[in-house]
Every structure is written in C-alpha cells, then in structure tokens.
Amino acid sequence: MIRRLISQQRVDAAPENFERERWIVVSDLDGSLLDHYSYSSEDARPALDLLRQLDLPLILNTSKTLRETLDIASEIGIRSPLIVENGGGVFIPKKSAKGKYWAAENDLLRRKEWIPVGTRRTDILKTLKHLKFERDLKFTSFDEMTLQGLEIHTGLQKASLHAALDREFSEPLLWKDSPTNLDWLSSKLEKAGLQIVKGGRFHMVSGKHNKGTSLDWMRSFFKTSVSSHVKIIALGDGMNDLPMLEAADIAICIRSHANPTLKSNRKTIITSNKTGVQGWNESVLSHLRNLQADPSLATH
Ligand SMILES: [Mg+2]
Fold this sequence. Notes:
This protein has 300 residues and is an alpha/beta fold. The protein has two domains: 21-117 and 212-293, HAD superfamily/HAD-like (Rossmann fold), CATH 3.40.50.1000; 121-207, Threonyl-tRNA Synthetase, Chain A, domain 2 (2-Layer Sandwich), CATH 3.30.980.20. The protein contains eleven helices and twelve strands. Strand 8 and strand 9 form a beta hairpin. The radius of gyration is 20 Å and the shape is globular. The chain starts with a helix and ends in a 7-residue tail after the last helix. Bound molecules: magnesium ion. Magnesium ion binds at residues 28, 30-32, 236-238.
C-alpha cells in the first residue's frame, strides 16, 4: 500500500519552495534507523526509497566509529556526509557519477575529506592515565582491555569488534569506582576540555562535542555546495540525540521500548506513533509528503 502511494507521487510536481529549500535528513542509527536487536533497516525501506527518489541527503549521526558507520552507509547506499563518534568527526564522501546523495547498495563510500572535530583519542588517553594515577581510580578503559575482555564487555563478535575499536575521538570506560570519584574525574576532565557521559554499558570520555554540534557545520556545508536555504529534519530515540533534535528545524523522537520519550524546553519535539524503525519510516514518509504538499508547514 505504502509502495503504491510512493509510486503515485509526482516528484516533478513538487511546489517551487520545496525545490528552493534544501531539506536534509539527519538520523541516529540504533533504535531509530536500525532495529535494536536485528540491526536491520528493512522496515524503513519505503522512506529510504522516497529519499532516494527525491535525492535528499540522509546524514547518519551516530556514536559509532567511522569504520562501523561506513559499512552501514554502504549497505543502505548513502552518499551523504557522515557524523561519527557523537560529533567527534565528519566524513565527506566523493560524489557519485549518478545521484548526488545516493548510490547503489554495497557501494563503499570513498573519502573526499575527513574533518576531525573532537580531541584526539591519544590525547584523551594521556589525560586519563595521568588522572587515574593521581587518585588511584578504579576503571578500565577500552585501551586497557584484552580482546577477550572487550568481547565479554561489549557483547560484540570479533569481526565487528575491530571496527568498534577503531576510535579516534572517544574512549569508553568501565567504571568500577565510587560516585564521589566519578564527580572528581568529571571536574578534572572538564578543566582539561573533556567530558564524561554515561552511556548504556560504558562511560564515554570525549572532547566537548555532541550530536548537535556538527549540525550548524552541516548547514553551511550544504548551503555552499547547493546554494539554497538548508533545513533539517532530525530523528533520534536516546538522550544523546537531544542536542541534535534541538538544533534541527523539525525534531522527531522515535518512540522506544528502551528509552523515555524525549522532551525539550527549547524545541517542539514530535514523537512517532510506532516504535523503532517502523516509527522512523512512518515519520519520514509523512513529513516528506507534508513538505511536498505545503512547505510553509515545515517550521510549525
Ligand atoms: Mg539510538
């Protein structure tokens, strides 16, 4: 049914404003475009097909490493920039011969530019080592774990472990010390221009960037490359997606079984009806159709 609706849409009949404004979609992966358990984006196929048909950029914005994200982008067939390690780095791919922002599936993106935004992991490790010694802190960083230990603690298979380990702008820690010592470490890191954020399994140490900090950069990038007014639809399901949603023009929280619904004092956040990938699909389809029908609705 959905497929039929898409095929009935006349892309060339889009209103003039829709063409003048360059809409881009920025999305989280796990729990949003990828299923929490199967890591599949199959339920988002109708929305991905429509984005491809309109040649709208889809930018993945994730806590994953570049190597992990490149594999996923290649499976989907995206040719848009990627934001990785929670805003730590921005990857700009070479353009493809055909569509600007989409390519065939399993077509690996080749690098045009790699923009490091965050503090380098080697510098983070130096600071951590020094602070650990200073107060005899009890934590284990990825850097200190054996491959076997990493396999146990991350739940990842060896094949995907190497891609997850290939970090450049962040270091996950297994915290085994008191909350008081965590506060101490947090304030010391703050003074060193770093931050520590609690994630699902690990505490993550990185420079002071987040999923929202690269969005302004992305707006200017598309403004200069396509010389039109850039507007962003952002989708995510976790607390670390909030800065990205707040920096977008249309903010969509993907309903989740794992996380509470996201709320903001600064931004109206629309929550999807369905959960996970189905919610992603439904939200992207409905917003693209609204924009095609009446672009003036876009910012309300
Ligand atoms: Mg997520």
